[in-house]
């Protein structure tokens, strides 16, 4: 919402001085080292300009120096909140260049890991959203559930955050014995929890008032600004890479793509972006159940030479990460090092629209806006 | 108190009685501050952290002393020993003074708070007026802190706090009126004396208007005490730490001491104005036992509201500045005005009150509480985390 500071004929009601506020790089709710330059009149923003680059670690350049296999751990750091999906993106790109086929069990392991990672990331997003609005309890509850997934993933690959689980040609390790039963047990516990989060946070009157009709992104603007993933779907565009440019074994699963409905305000407001993530967690749980049920036998990794040298060529792959369509453009020149890697990430796509949306919002709304886009600063800068 | 000082003054005829009074009052004030206010504020900080932790599926501070009980002492000691950082570009005198103004404002409120029938520092005949005036001193300190910090986030926090107190003084004042009308006095002891120990004789159950006033008073007091959902001045996700951003060590702790202490003041005020204060049945003639019972009653009633405030803080998100203003000016102020007239009308129509109306109101209140408790138990039951074993052990 915006405050009217002018009469209809354009005269200003108050002659007030504009203030430049510097939000970040160290600020509790910029979700990492991210900076916004806010021009504000009191608490009402004229504009908030994102200043990115504080977390740039040249990950794309590193790829050119460490080689195909060696780059896998670095992909964890592109988006450390959902490292499994970036792992997968790099693996798919490298496999496409080298013509490697992943065994079916390997693909299933990838899907299970990636969907667990997606739930993990969305839990953090939903909890952090609550915390940015001022409710701390939903965050600790969400992190408590996330811990359970972290335990599962630790059992799977030995790490809790930067997994380095996938390999070119498959995954590093098969599922440990009894893993599927544990995941099922977790899902039985987790699915009712999402409803609990609804009770605690989503349907809270103050929460709805803070988010509904705030920073509405219309369908057209969302497409024009290349928003991806949940941010795009919240604006009512049903577009999910898993469904519409399928990769891995996703076509074998039956799941829906939730979109924003504007239940409490207009389609594409902050509340819609939040609730789409909650709905996606339910769909991820559905995919996980199907994947565990249809888990095929066999090897989890294809025979891939240690000295991997894909033929010269280029490839552009899309992977649906929790922050949306992550597209990797990889050029190979026939050597053991990639010639060029470029990653386009969901958070980076969301940064450009913030300046337009922030006009007339209050400083407190900017916090909600950043949280609703689920910005992860390292993913913005790479 | 006065009689005792008179006796002391008579014992030292060569000294001016005024000096004896001054020293005596100072000594007594220091006693109250160190024996009661500081421990209550400090222990409240520990209780709040434990209650929060419980609600949030955490453990909370449990290392220092039994159940972490001495955590508040450890924190106080740590903060006293910490370096007192004063940033280079701040307005130093104002920056240094601000925490003391805040603490002075909050401690001064204790002067007129009734602890028991015979325990009150000064039963001013304008008690409640004095308290609502002196607690506003806190905002001056916060505004000083925000302004002198030379930090835009601090300044926004300070300004927000000032706005908040200025706005909410009005609905809080309006919701005090019915209680004052019912008692016919502004004196805190007078207000308590006008009620009885039974819920049916509490002011909050006198008429629906009085009950609305009670709810409005609690909401308004939360807003004045900078508590969630109105913790805008120190909104950590928006303003870093608001007015306290640049403060460190003991100075920063003093702000929070005032905040936690203010919780208790809010609790005492709610209990005094609407819930019968320290009133207990006259079960014994022993004055000491009676005073202890009264003190315990008052303390428990006040602490109940402290607990509710903690619960609210752990549950609700924060409102936005404009919504906060809307709530005040578009809802609470008009409701408060109508409410005062309504309460006065009921008093004219039923000069002695109506026991039937009181009984109906108590019954309704009990029914609401029971239903609420059932809802809470339902959620506790559903939460059943036993399925996964201890949370820390994960899914294994």
What keywords describe this structure?
heterodimer; A: 382 residues; three-stranded antiparallel sheet; 14 helices; globular; B: mainly alpha; 2 domains; disordered C terminus
Broad shape of chain A: globular
Distance between the termini of chain B: 65 Å
> Number of helix segments of chain B?
14
Instruction: Provide the CATH topology of chain A.
Output: Cytochrome-c3 Hydrogenase, chain B
Give, in spatial order, the strands making up the sheet with the most strands of chain A: 1-2-3
Largest sheet: number of strands, sense, barrel closure of chain A? 3 strands, antiparallel
Q: Biggest sheet of chain B: strands, sense, closure? A: none
State the domain count of chain A: 1
Strand runs of chain A, count: 8
Radius of gyration of chain B, Cα only, in angstroms?
23 Å
Explained architecture:
The complex is a heterodimer of chains A (382) and B (396). Chain A has 14 helices and 8 strands. By secondary structure, chain A is of the alpha+beta class. Chain A has one domain: Orthogonal Bundle (Cytochrome-c3 Hydrogenase, chain B). In chain A, a hairpin with a 2-residue loop joins β6 (313-321) and β7 (324-332). Chain A is globular. Chain B has helices spanning 2-11, 17-55, 71-81, 92-109, 127-134, 137-148, 152-183, 188-193, 208-224, 236-239, 249-274, 287-315, 321-349, 355-383. Chain B is globular and about 65 Å long. In chain B, 42% of the residues are buried. Chain B has 14 helices and no strands. Chain B has 2 domains: 29-81; 86-376, no CATH class. Chain A binds chain B through residues 1, 3, 19, 21-22, 27-29, 43, 130-137, 140-141, 144, 147-148, 150-152, 155, 182-183, 185-186, 188-189, 192, 196, 199-201, 204, 206-207, 209-210, 362-365, 367, and chain B through 52, 55-58, 152-153, 156, 228-229, 231, 235-240, 314-323, 379, 382-383, 385, 387-388, 391, 394-396.
């Amino acid at each position: 919402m915006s405050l009217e500071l002018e009469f209809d004929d354009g005269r200003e009601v108050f002659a007030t001085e504009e203030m430049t506020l510097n939000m970040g790089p160290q600020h509790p709710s910029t979700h990492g080292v991210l900076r916004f330059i806010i021009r504000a009149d009191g608490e009402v923003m004229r504009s908030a300009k994102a200043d990115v680059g504080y977390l740039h670690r040249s990950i794309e350049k590193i790829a050119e120096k460490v080689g195909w296999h060696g780059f896998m751990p670095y992909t964890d750091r592109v988006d450390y909140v959902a490292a499994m999906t970036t792992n997968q993106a790099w693996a798919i790109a490298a496999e496409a260049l080298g013509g490697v086929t992943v065994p079916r069990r390997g693909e299933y392991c990838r899907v299970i890991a990636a969907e667990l990672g997606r739930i993990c990331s969305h839990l953090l997003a939903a909890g952090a959203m609550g915390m940015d609005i001022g409710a701390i309890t939903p965050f600790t509850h969400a992190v408590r559930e996330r811990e359970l997934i972290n335990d599962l993933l630790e059992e799977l690959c030995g790490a809790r955050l930067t997994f380095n689980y996938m390999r070119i040609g498959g995954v590093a390790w098969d599922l440990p014995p009894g893993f599927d039963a544990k995941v099922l047990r977790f899902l039985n516990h987790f699915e009712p929890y999402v409803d609990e989060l609804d009770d605690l946070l989503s349907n809270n009157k103050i929460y709805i008032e803070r988010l509904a009709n705030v920073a509405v992104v219309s369908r057209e603007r969302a497409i024009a600004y290349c928003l991806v993933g949940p941010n795009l779907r919240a604006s009512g565009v049903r577009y999910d890479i898993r469904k519409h440019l399928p990769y891995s074994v996703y076509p074998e699963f039956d799941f829906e793509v939730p979109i924003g409905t504007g239940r409490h305000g207009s389609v594409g407001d902050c509340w819609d972006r939040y609730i789409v993530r909650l709905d996606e967690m339910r769909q991820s749980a559905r995919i996980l159940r199907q994947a565990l049920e249809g888990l095929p036998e066999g090897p989890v990794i294809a025979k891939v030479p240690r000295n991997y040298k894909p033929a010269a060529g280029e490839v552009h792959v899309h992977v649906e990460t929790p922050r949306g369509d992550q597209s990797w453009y990889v050029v190979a020149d026939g050597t053991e090092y990639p010639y060029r890697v470029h990653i386009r990430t969901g958070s980076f796509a969301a940064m450009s629209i913030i300046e337009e949306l922030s006009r007339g919002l209050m400083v407190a709304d900017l916090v909600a806006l950043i949280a609703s886009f689920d910005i992860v600063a390292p993913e913005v800068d790479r | 108190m006065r009689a005792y000082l008179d006796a002391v003054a008579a014992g030292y005829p060569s000294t001016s009685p005024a000096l004896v009074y001054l020293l005596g009052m100072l000594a007594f004030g220091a006693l109250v501050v160190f024996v009661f206010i500081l421990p209550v504020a400090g222990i409240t900080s520990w209780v709040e952290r434990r209650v929060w932790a419980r609600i949030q599926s955490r453990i909370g501070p449990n290392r220092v002393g039994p159940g972490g009980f001495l955590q508040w002492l450890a924190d106080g000691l740590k903060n006293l020993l910490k370096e007192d950082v004063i940033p280079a570009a701040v307005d130093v005198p104002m920056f240094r003074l601000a925490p003391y103004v805040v603490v002075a404002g909050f401690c001064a409120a204790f002067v007129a708070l009734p602890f028991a029938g015979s325990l009150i520092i000064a039963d001013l005949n304008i008690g409640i007026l004095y308290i609502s005036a002196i607690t506003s001193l806190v905002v001056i300190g916060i505004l000083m802190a925000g302004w002198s910090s030379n930090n835009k986030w601090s300044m926004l926090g300070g300004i927000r706090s000032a706005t908040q107190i200025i706005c909410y003084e009005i609905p809080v004042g309006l919701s005090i009126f019915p209680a004052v009308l019912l008692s016919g006095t502004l004196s805190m002891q007078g207000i308590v004396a006008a009620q009885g120990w039974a819920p049916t004789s509490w002011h909050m159950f006198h008429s629906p208007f009085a009950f609305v006033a009670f709810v409005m008073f609690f909401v308004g007091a939360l807003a004045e005490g900078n508590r969630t959902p109105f913790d805008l001045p120190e909104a950590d996700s928006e303003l870093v730490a608001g007015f306290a951003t640049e403060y460190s060590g003991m100075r920063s702790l003093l702000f929070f001491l005032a905040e936690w202490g203010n919780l208790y003041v809010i609790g005492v005020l709610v209990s005094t104005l609407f819930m019968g204060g320290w009133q207990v049945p006259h079960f014994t003639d022993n004055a000491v036992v009676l005073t202890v019972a009264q003190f315990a009653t008052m303390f428990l009633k006040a602490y109940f509201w402290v607990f509710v405030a903690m619960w609210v803080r752990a549950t609700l998100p924060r409102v936005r500045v404009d919504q906060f203003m809307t709530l005040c000016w578009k809802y609470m102020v008009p409701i408060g005005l109508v409410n005062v007239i309504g309460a006065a009308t009921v008093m004219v129509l039923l000069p002695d009150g109506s026991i039937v109306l009181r009984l109906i109101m108590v019954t309704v209140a009990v029914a609401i509480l029971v239903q609420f408790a059932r809802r809470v138990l339902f959620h506790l039951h559903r939460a059943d985390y036993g399925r996964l074993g201890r949370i820390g052990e994960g899914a294994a």
